[in-house]
Amino acid sequence: MIETRESELKRESGRIPLAERLAAIAHDLKARAGKAGRPVNKDEIDELWGHP
Prior knowledge:
The structure is a single chain. With 52 residues, this protein is mainly α. It is built from 3 helices and no strands. It has helices at residues 2-13, 18-33, 42-48. The longest helix has 16 residues, at 18-33. It is elongated and about 55 Å long.
């Protein structure tokens, strides 16, 4: 059991932390989105979430 955990820790030590991977993904998506977005008003948000 100890050997299994030690090998798992060695494998994980070479990985990029999850928070950094998620930040990189978010940055990439933001860069791809461009400037074509627009503000969304409260009525549109309510409609998306099915609120009356």
